[in-house]
Structure formats: structure tokens, C-alpha cells
Design goal:
The complex is a heterodimer of chains A (761) and B (160).
Chain A lengths: L12 H6 L14 E7 L5 E7 L1 H4 L4 E6 L32 E2 L5 E7 L2 H10 L1 E6 L12 E3 L2 E2 L3 E7 L2 H6 L3 E9 L11 E7 L4 E7 L3 H12 L6 E5 L14 H13 L3 E4 L2 H7 L6 E9 L5 E13 L8 H9 L9 E9 L13 H19 L3 H8 L8 E7 L2 E5 L4 H11 L2 H13 L3 E13 L4 E9 L4 E5 L8 H13 L7 E4 L16 H28 L6 E4 L2 E4 L9 E2 H12 L3 E9 L4 E13 L6 E11 L6 H20 L31 E5 L17 H4 L1 H13 L7 E2 L3 H11 L1
Parallel strand pairs in A: 1-14, 10-31, 12-13, 16-17, 22-23, 29-30
Antiparallel strand pairs in A: 1-5, 2-4, 2-6, 3-5, 7-8, 9-17, 10-15, 11-12, 11-14, 15-16, 18-19, 20-28, 21-22, 21-27, 24-25, 25-26, 28-29
Chain B lengths: L1 E7 L2 E7 L5 H8 L18 E4 L2 E4 L12 E3 L12 H8 L9 H14 L5 H8 L10 H11 L10
The chains are: A alpha+beta (761), B alpha+beta (160).
């Protein structure tokens, strides 16, 4: 039986297709209160007073809190491993303490017996706020952001090699400034939480948890002053994550604090405007980058200085985005010397965290547009410049002599030039370029962008999995992973089924329940298939060994001569011949002999490094010179995932990610006015792609060299769709208008492109 | 409070609502039908799309009182004797959902397209399905799934 590598349908689908899912809003407890957050309407100001009397007198209102009511709760911690110490002083309190620092910051909170009444009452809370001048410019000269805290709380430098010597001896020096706008994940389900004090167990239960339940359990218990065994988190269905949903925000802490204090269930579902101004933003960076090259376009060194807009506070991710930015900028190229200087900047806008492909989307845009610029200035074909610089297959594994967050950077395997050649062939690159050249010759603005990138995922430090088999042969896999819609249950079941020689479709995968397994790492950083997959394989192998040893006695054949095929244990290589018994029979026998109710094996997969994989994005676009609108005519992705557990789901990740990335390249942006007022607060302002804005995304899922970091040889696939999209669209627009150097900022909105076209003519 | 009757998937629900209550809130909170989801409450995302007298409607933009006595259809009414109908089966086979939050609206909008019985070009299908937002799938597989049903490639679902 082989089910790894098959595009089997998902175990998750049935509930979701029949309307029986359990998303945050679908869950209710008897007697629950509804929470509504009162948010700052100014970007920066001193709170003079907050009048809650009218709200408190509204029928159905149970309580109203302001900062004084929660002053004993510490600011939200940065997650261990994500922090630069410099950011500790920039953490966010759960309700603003005296000063508000962005529009959307929680200043008060109302609890009522009905969600409509809670919202009515929240509108009656009057916060008198004295305006202070806001910081809105990312590139402003550093000054004081709050007492004792600079608008630039951290500057760090990293890299390797002799950058200055390379620039001194370079044949060409190419430099440019490139900016990525402010985007975020925007899951279709807004954030929500439902918490209840379980009197019988003496524990607080947080339902509707997401992404990293085990980490959040520790973080929340610390904030609330609870022992760990007094708090459990339960993940239901999660309507998309993309790095944003499932982090600890002030709102989630308030819900849990209220349930703890009131001893009543408390429910909170934010609305879409709240989501757009209070959930983590991401991406916004400006890079000033220089490359030193030889006469043929071989890059000798890159010197990059960048500014990252953290917004008003440091959140749980700490400095993750800027440090990954520094780590990922070199991409798939040799690059003998590299220096990265990162400036973390505070401004009076919604705080930032990670969004799918953090640091990759941005740096792939920056690096690949630098390559376009090198090609233009040296009179070379950009594809040739990429080929000249790509790491060769015989250089694997390839070490980057610097580290990020203590984790070494080693590209473990892959034939990058070979994968690029496959992509060019599959996508008919030469013919497409010829067609576009002909259209340009006929006066059209049409062009192709092709870019390369390296993806990183499957980092550690560990994942635990327990595989339990009952006497009837039924299997439950218990893991600390989380599902954000990516198909985690199906993939874990496939690995378990493959290992045990049974059908995947009956396997129950339990995840995100902190009372079922002690530790877990959740769903982040493209790690689930690699980490949980390998831990599942290890635990299922343990169960398999027990089954075969039990069967060996009954079948009077050594265990090593036996195999399990389609749930039947018999002699390896001759299914159906000779004596056999079912997995269920062996399980029942083993349980009888060993005692207990289940065969249960728990294993830990540990790793200290990520796996790296290579991909290519291709975009073909046309530009309407009258409207400055961009039509994406074709979009294609080639991605070498080493080994695909479920190619259909890999494609699903690539296609969905690409459309998110195209959104960031053409449509999506959080804009602010000079007073720090957000201008993108509805889906009519923050424009996400619909089916009408994107073509059918083409995919070439390659299974080249497997990863060497893990026994199953798996690489990650969650971010590869989004990573290259900003770069590919920008490069295609540059080719279409014949001036790649003019495309310097994402998104390339019609207004920006119109200005570029005007300047060009 | 106003007394109204909401006929949901063939079953009458006698409920009391305030005039300001949206239809999707009434379906979810009063009728216990939580399959229709609320994604934006301003009529853009379409996660709450339902059929009212067989026409697609944003459940967040219609007041519950406006649907009094009308025939409402939601995702909960699609399965036939516990088995997927053709559209559900097509979404399953084509991997047309990931997190599943937009799926109720996508399915109901597609139901309207399929039941019209009129030929639908690929451009027209894309245009209509562009009424609703999905953040996970990139739309390709949703369009393929609906096309498979329109073309008769998938006509019914597997058993429960």
C-alpha cells in the first residue's frame, strides 16, 4: 500500500461541506456574556478620561472595564525565541494605559448579555483623548516614540564575507530602493474567542483556540497568573490563519480574564473593521540595496539596509519578520559576501507580526528586482543573470556562513538549475517570450516576469505524536499540531496509514487539544507536514513493530519476514498467500498480552535546522495604457518539494498562496493619512483578489532531491505560493512597460502605475 | 420584538427578532443553523450567501423581518439522505475548499448557477463566482468544481 504521494481527498471536508463545522462563532455556552471592545479613534493621544456610566446603565450590560480594571495584568509577552531584548519595552498592554498609540487600540471593554446590546453600550463609552502628534513615516529621522523608547528601538547587522573588498573591486555597482506595502493575511473568519471556567475541574477552558494552542497556553497562564494545569485550550475549526489568526492579542486575554473573574462564559467575535485595524499587519519594508558584480553579472556582494514598520507595539512574534528578512534575502544565489542592516521602526499604526511567507515575499521582490536591474544595466537577459548566479547541484548541501536565531542556514538538497530548466520547458518560456516580444512590437504593453526563490520550512525544535490503536484496529493520532485549513489531518493520516499498512480514511487525527497531549508546536512557519509527519511516522512505526512481533508469534514467522498490506499481516512480498491475520486481530492479541485498552506509542521528532527548497514563479501580464490596469494573463509556479505527501494539497497551497501574493502585488495595502487614520478598513478599501482578478494558476510540483533533514525526506509547501508572487508580477510589469527600474513599490496599484507610465512618456 | 416565521430548508422556524437583526444572525442564533458564516457584515465577502426564494442573497444585508414567510435555503439543506449532492461531491473531489469558511456561500451561489439550467460560459462563471471572496484556494479549484457539475461530469455524491 502506498498512500504517501497520492492525491487522496481530504478527511476534513465532510463537516465543512455540510455546514456542521465548529468555528468560533458556532460555539455557545449557557449563560454566556458577549464582549465588545472599545477602540481608540486617534493614532496617538493622552487619555484624559473615560466615561463608562451611560454604558454601564444600559439594560443587559454586566460590566465595563477600563485600564484601571486590568492594570495588574502584564503586557503581552514576546514568544520565546522570537525576541530581541530591545523590543521588550515595546510590548502592548491589554487595555491602553494612559496613552493610545494606534487607531484600533483597545481602551475599554463592555460585557453584556447580547451581542447587539454589547455593541450599543460600547458606543456609549466616551474616551476623552488629547491628541499628540503621531509618527506615521517609516523613514522619518528617529526620535522619541514613548518615554525612553526610540522610534528605532533596534538596529541589527548580520552577514558574512568581505563586503567592502568586493565593492572595491567590482566591475559594476547597481543600487536601488524598493518598498513593499503594508498587507496582512485576512482570514475569512475574523478572530473570536470563547472561554469558560470549569468549576468541577477548577480550570479555565479557552475554546476557539488556533495556530499555536500549546504555546498560547503557556503565555496565557503566565499573563493570567494561573498554574499550567488550570488552563486548557481547545481548537475547533479555524477559518484561515496565514500567520495572523491564533496569536495572543489583547482581546483574547480580556475574554479569558473575564471568564476567570466572572465565573461565567464569555464570547467575543470581532467584526471585519476591527480585524483590519487590530489583527497583525505585516510586510511593510523599504530596502536600500546595492550589488557588486563582475563584468558578466556574477554577484560578488550584496549590501542591504532595510527599514521594517513594526507599528505601535512589538507583538508576540518579536523580531521574527526582520530577522527572517535578513536570513532569506540571499535566496538561491551563491553570493560570496553579504551584509544586512535592519532597522525596526515604531510608528502610530496597527502593530505588525508575521503573514504567510514572512521575510520571503519581501526579500524575493527586492532581490529579484535587483537582478532585473543588474540585467538592464549590464545589457544582459535577466534569466542569464539568474543562471550565472544560481547555486549548482554539486554544491549541495550549501552552507550560508551566518545564522539566524541560532539556527544554521544550510540548503540541504536540490538541483536549482535543473528545476529552473524543467519550469522553462513546462511553461513554454521561449515561445511565451517570443509572443510577448511580438505584442510589444505591435504596440502593446505586455511582458513576462520569471523569478527564482528559496523557501524555508520544517524547522524545529520538536514535535510529539502519540499513535493509539484500539482492539478493533481503529487508530487515533494525537498531536500538538493545529489545523488552519491546510489539510493537516489528511496529511498526518496518510503518513500514519503508509507506515501501518492500513487505510488512511478511517484514521482520526486529534489536534490542538492541550488536554490530550502535553506539548505541541502548532501550525506555523510551514512546519506541519515535515515535523508532525516525521513524528507520526516514528510513533506509527512503534505500533507497527508491536503488531508484527505479535503476529510473528501467531504466524510462526520472524517479524522481519512479515509485512502489512491493506490491513492484513502476512509474509512480505506475497500478499494473500500463506497464513495471515488482520491488524485488528493482532492489535486485540497485543492489547490482551500487554494490558490496557490501547496500543499507544508516543515519539518525539527533534531537529535543529530548517529544510530549504527551490521554486520559480512566472507571470505574464498586460497593461492597459489608458487605465493603468494590469491583467494577469498567465501565472505559473514550479516548486521542488522533494517528496509530496499529497500533490493535490501541495497544489492547493501553491495556488492559494499565489493569489494572496498577487493581491499584495496589485491590490492590497493598508494606507494611512497624515494623522494616522487608517484608510483601509473595509473590504471595499482593502481589496483582495476575487476570481475575476486572477487566471487559473498553473503548477509544476517537482519531486527532485529529498530533504536530508528528516527521515521521510519532506520539505515544506505552505509558503511557496506566496513567496515569489510580488517579484514575478513586478518583473512582468517592468518587462511589459520596458522599464524594470521604474517598478519600485508594491502594490503596483493603477494610480502608481499611471504615474510610472506618465513619467516614462 | 417581532414574531416572524422563517422557512429554512423546508422547515418552519417561528422566531422573535428585533427589526434590526440581520437574516444571517437570525438563522444562526435563533434557528440554530450555523452553517452560513459571517465574514464581513458589509456585503462584500459573500460567506453568508443563501438562497431566498431561490435567488442568491447576502444574509448580512437582509433583515430577518424581510424574509418572513419566504423560502430560505442554506448549506444545511444540500445533502441528500446523508449523502453529498453533486456540488458538495465536486468541491470534495476537486479540493475546492481549505479552511471551509467561505464554502457555504460558494456552494449556495453555485447552487443558483446550476439550478438556473442555462448554459454558462467560463467567463460568465468566473464573473459570477467573483461575487464571493475566498482567501485559501485561489479560486481555481472552486471554478473547476462548479464546471464539473455544470458539464455533468459529477452528478451525485457518495454516501455518508
Amino acid at each position: 500500500m502506498t498512500v504517501i504521494g497520492k492525491s487522496v481527498t481530504r478527511l476534513e471536508d465532510r463537516a465543512l461541506l455540510t455546514g456542521t463545522g465548529r468555528f468560533a462563532g458556532d460555539q455557545n455556552f449557557e449563560g454566556q456574556l458577549y464582549m465588545r471592545v472599545v477602540r481608540s479613534t486617534v493614532a496617538h493621544g493622552r487619555i484624559v478620561s473615560i466615561d463608562t456610566r451611560a454604558a454601564a446603565e444600559m439594560p443587559g450590560v454586566f460590566a465595563v472595564w477600563t485600564c484601571a480594571d486590568v492594570a495588574d495584568v502584564p503586557a503581552i509577552n514576546l514568544r520565546p525565541g522570537s525576541a530581541l531584548q530591545d523590543l521588550e519595552r515595546c510590548r502592548q498592554p491589554i487595555l491602553a494605559q494612559g496613552v493610545v498609540r494606534y487607531v484600533g487600540e483597545p481602551v475599554a471593554v463592555v460585557f453584556a448579555d447580547d451581542p447587539y446590546r454589547a455593541e450599543d453600550a460600547a458606543e456609549l463609552v466616551w474616551a476623552e483623548i488629547e491628541d499628540l502628534p503621531p509618527v506615521v513615516g517609516l523613514m522619518d529621522t528617529p526620535g522619541e516614540f514613548s518615554p525612553g523608547v526610540s522610534t528605532e528601538p533596534s538596529v541589527f547587522e548580520t552577514g558574512y564575507g568581505d563586503v567592502d573588498a568586493a565593492f572595491a573591486s567590482a566591475a559594476h555597482i547597481i543600487e536601488c530602493e524598493l518598498t513593499v506595502g503594508r498587507h496582512t493575511g485576512v482570514p475569512l473568519e475574523t478572530r473570536g474567542a470563547l472561554s469558560i471556567w470549569n468549576e468541577a475541574k477548577g480550570q479555565l477552558e479557552f475554546h476557539a483556540a488556533a495556530k499555536v494552542p500549546h504555546n498560547n497556553r503557556i503565555a496565557l497562564a503566565t499573563l493570567l497568573g494561573l498554574e499550567l494545569d488550570q488552563l486548557h485550550l481547545f481548537e475547533g475549526h479555524v477559518g484561515g490563519g496565514f500567520g495572523v489568526r491564533g496569536e495572543i492579542y489583547p482581546d483574547e486575554v480580556l475574554v479569558n480574564l473575564a471568564a476567570l473573574r466572572f465565573r461565567r462564559p464569555v464570547k467575543w467575535i470581532e467584526d471585519r473593521m476591527e480585524h483590519l485595524i487590530s489583527a497583525n499587519h505585516s510586510r511593510e519594508q523599504t530596502h536600500r540595496i546595492r550589488a557588486a558584480t563582475d563584468a558578466d553579472g556574477l554577484i560578488l556582494a550584496i549590501d542591504d539596509e532595510f527599514w521594517f514598520n513594526q507599528g505601535a507595539y512589538a507583538r508576540t512574534h518579536g523580531a521574527t519578520v526582520p530577522s527572517v528578512t535578513a536570513a532569506m534575502l540571499p535566496g538561491p544565489y551563491k553570493l560570496p559576501a553579504y551584509r544586512s542592516t535592519g532597522h525596526i521602526r515604531l510608528t502610530n499604526v496597527t502593530p505588525a507580526g508575521t503573514y504567510r511567507g514572512p521575510g520571503r515575499y519581501e526579500t524575493t521582490f527586492v532581490r529579484e528586482m535587483l537582478i532585473e536591474r543588474i540585467a538592464a544595466e549590464l545589457g544582459l537577459d535577466p534569466l542569464e543573470v539568474r543562471r550565472t548566479n544560481l547555486i549548482a547541484a554539486d554544491e549541495m548541501p550549501y552552507d550560508r556562513p551566518f545564522s539566524v536565531g541560532g539556527s544554521p542556514i544550510q540548503y540541504d538538497s536540490g538541483d536549482y538549475p535543473g528545476a529552473l530548466a524543467s519550469a522553462l520547458d513546462q511553461f513554454g518560456y521561449d515561445a511565451l517570450q517570443a509572443e510577448m516580444a511580438a505584442r510589444r512590437a505591435a504596440g502593446e504593453l505586455a511582458g513576462v516576469g520569471l523569478i527564482c526563490f528559496v523557501e524555508r520550512g520544517g524547522d524545529g525544535p520538536f514535535d510529539d505524536v502519540r499513535v493509539e490503536m484500539a482492539a478493533d484496529g481503529s487508530v487515533e493520532v494525537v498531536t500538538g499540531v493545529a489545523s488552519v485549513g491546510q489539510g493537516a489531518e489528511t496529511v498526518v493520516a496518510q503518513v500514519c496509514a503508509e507506515t501501518l499498512g492500513i487505510d488512511y480514511s478511517g484514521i482520526v487525527v486529534t489536534h490542538g487539544q492541550t488536554d490530550r497531549i502535553a506539548r505541541g508546536q502548532g501550525a506555523r512557519a510551514s512546519r506541519v507536514t515535515v515535523m508532525t509527519g516525521n513524528a507520526t511516522h516514528m510513533a506509527a512505526s512503534g505500533v507497527r513493530t508491536i503488531l508484527l512481533e505479535t503476529a510473528a508469534g501467531l504466524l510462526q514467522s520472524p517479524a522481519e519476514t512479515l509485512d502489512i498490506v491493506d490491513g492484513v499481516i502476512g509474509l512480505a512480498g506475497s500478499p494473500g498467500d500463506g497464513p495471515s491475520l488482520t491488524v485488528a486481530e493482532a492489535a486485540a492479541e497485543a492489547i490482551c498480552a500487554r494490558g490496557g485498552t490501547h496500543l499507544a506509542v508516543e515519539e518525539t521528532f527533534e531537529i535543529d535546522r530548517a529544510t530549504y527548497s527551490f521554486g520559480v514563479h512566472l507571470a505574464a501580464v498586460s497593461v492597459d495604457p489608458m487605465t493603468a490596469g494590469v491583467t494577469v494573463e498567465r501565472y505559473a509556479i514550479a516548486y521542488d518539494i522533494g517528496r509530496a505527501v499529497n500533490p493535490m494539497l501541495v497544489e492547493g497551497q501553491l495556488v492559494g498562496g499565489a493569489v494572496q501574493g498577487i493581491g499584495g502585488a496589485l491590490l492590497e495595502e493598508f494606507l494611512y493619512d497624515e494623522a494616522g487614520q487608517p484608510l483601509s478598513v473595509t473590504f471595499a478599501d482593502y481589496l483582495m483578489p476575487t476570481a475575476a482578478e486572477v487566471p487559473d494558476i498553473e503548477c509544476l510540483v517537482l519531486e527532485g532531491d529529498r530533504s536530508t533533514t528528516n527521515p521521510l525526506g519532506l520539505k515544506s509547501g505552505g509558503d511557496a505560493g506566496v513567496t515569489g508572487a510580488g517579484a514575478a508580477i513586478a518583473a512582468a510589469i517592468g518587462a511589459a512597460i520596458g522599464k524594470p527600474e521604474t517598478v519600485t513599490r508594491l502594490p503596483v496599484s493603477p494610480r502608481r502605475l499611471r504615474d510610472i507610465l506618465k513619467a516614462k512618456s | 420584538m417581532t414574531r416572524i416565521t422563517l422557512n429554512v430548508n423546508g422547515t418552519d422556524h417561528a422566531v422573535e427578532v428585533e427589526p434590526r437583526h440581520s437574516l444571517v444572525d437570525a438563522l444562526r442564533e435563533q434557528c440554530g443553523q450555523t452553517g452560513s458564516h459571517i465574514g464581513c457584515e458589509h456585503g462584500v465577502c459573500g460567506a453568508c450567501t443563501i438562497l431566498v426564494d431561490d435567488e442568491p442573497v447576502r444574509g448580512c444585508l437582509m433583515f430577518a423581518v424581510q424574509a418572513d414567510g419566504k423560502k430560505i435555503r442554506t448549506i444545511e439543506g444540500l445533502a441528500e439522505n446523508g449523502a453529498f449532492n453533486a456540488l458538495q461531491q465536486a468541491f470534495h473531489e476537486h479540493h475546492a475548499l481549505q479552511c471551509g469558511f467561505c464554502t457555504p456561500g460558494m456552494l449556495m451561489l453555485a447552487t443558483w448557477i446550476v439550478e438556473r439550467g442555462a448554459p454558462v460560459s467560463d467567463d460568465e462563471l468566473r464573473d459570477i463566482m467573483a461575487s464571493n471572496l475566498c482567501r485559501c484556494t485561489g479560486y481555481r479549484n472552486i471554478l473547476r468544481a462548479v464546471r464539473a457539475v455544470l458539464d455533468g461530469t459529477i452528478t451525485r455524491g457518495a454516501g455518508a
